[in-house]
Amino acid sequence: MQLFPRILLADTKNTLALRSDDFKDGETVIISVQSMEKYNVPHSGLYRIDEDRRFEKHTKIVKDGAVIFDFTPIGEQRHRVYAEYRGEKYTFEIYSLLSDLYALNAYKGDGHIHSTASDGLSSPLDTACAYYAAGFDYIALTDHHKYAPSKELSEQVNGVLKHFRVYCGEEVHNRDMGYFHIINFGAKDSVNEIINADPDDVFRKIAAQAGVIAEKYSLPESLDKKEFAFRLWVSENIRKFGGVSVLCHPYWDAYGEYNMQSDMLYFLLKNHVFDAFEVVDDVDRTGNGVNLQTALYQQLRADGVKIPIVGSSDCHDVNGDVFGKYFTYAFCDNVEYIKEAITNFKTVAVERIGTEYRVYGDFRLIKYTRFLIDNFEPNFKQIREKNVALFKRAIEERSAELAEKLEKDCLSFRKLFFGNRA
Predict the structure, then answer these.
(1) Distance between alpha carbon 374 and the CA centroid of its chain, in Å?
(2) Which of 82, 151, 302, 329 is the most exposed place for a label (fewest CB within 10 A)?
(3) What does the alpha-carbon distance between residue 333 and residue 104 come to, in Å, rounded to a whole number?
(4) Are residues 145 and 196 in contact, defined by beta-carbon separation less than 8 angstroms?
């Protein structure tokens, strides 16, 4: 039994269709809808919790193999649809959105990933295949010091597929496995290549300007001027190349100390030196880093500092336990506008702990994301998993025909779930 669409426009009459291979025309199905926040039946009198009295039941007749019914949801919230048929009760969930969010599509992604081009364990293409099969809509390959592998992969994939996107990216360092770890997401060119050409000269030039920069930003005396100047230089160059600069894993327990000092971290975020803050990631596998990063994010919000956020895995092994554990949901017109979704605060960061999820960001987006994780992801992932071999073949053969074939099922399910607007 299936019910579509699952995403509705709030405060508007929506038509839903319930279908089953078992339905026979003329049979009856009892339909009821229970809203989870703005209750169908106001709580009054004795405030009784009688399950079957908290919503109205409507008897519907099967016609042409389906039960068609209308529902006008009040506001933005999750609802449960109950269908009683042949003595069995079936439960579905639907979600109503206000017009601004209803107009946007939801995309799951990971913007911090490593491959065999640096210290990852899978090739760039096999990495993309793993994320495709797991139901992701976009990724960015961000190998250490290297931009070229992501550019090559993005040209391979984006030249064939329309609904799964690979963004160019890199993890920027000052030298070797240096102190600075900064994500360049979606830029047209590499910042690492500028540094790699002559790291000493780059650092010397930045250091020469450190005093002026410190004065411009009123940098506290307790903070390192050169460090601040270098981080600012990297971020400005990422922006110059059209990318999004992401401050990543500051509380990674690296070599006996955190990757960043808290005072510098707070100052950078407060002054919007970076475009986004990676609040959940694979930092230490104990939860300490994610705990501190999400706590800092909440502290910044309490202090009136608004900063876009992302969730990323920093995955090095698509067969390991970190794969799919941290990710982002972005809300935008299509998958080509993820950068804009990030900078326009239309993203949430997601952390999976066992079978549970924690979502961080705007409350409206959190509630909607939780619904999608519970109701959209499982079926969408099943479709992707059965098509992953065809995905790899389409990329290797650069076949638009194969790509169209494999995307057909995914697009069809999206249109059913979100309505034909998807």
Answers:
(1) 15
(2) 302
(3) 5
(4) yes
**Any residues with CB less than 8 A from the CB of 54 and at least 6 apart, and which?**
34, 39, 40, 41
Count of positions (residues) in the chain: 422
Distance separating alpha carbons of residues 302 and 306, to the nearest angstrom: 9
Among 56, 57, 60, residue whose Cα is nearest residue 68: 60
Going by C-alpha positions, the residue among 173, 124, 104 that lies closest to residue 364 is 104
| Tokens matching residue 401 | 């025909």
Mean pLDDT per 10-residue segment, the chain (422 residues) = 98 98 97 90 61 81 98 97 97 98 98 97 97 98 97 97 96 80 98 95 95 98 96 98 97 91 97 98 85 97 98 96 96 97 98 95 98 98 95 95 92 93 61
- Cα 156 to Cα 171: distance, rounded to the nearest angstrom: 21
Q: In what order do the strands lie in the sheet with 7-9?
A: 7-9, 88-97, 77-85, 28-35, 57-61
Using CA atoms, how far residue 150 sits from 114, 217, 321, 362, in Å, is 10, 34, 23, 30
Decide: pTM greater than 0.70: yes
Kind and range of the H or E element at 414? helix 400-418
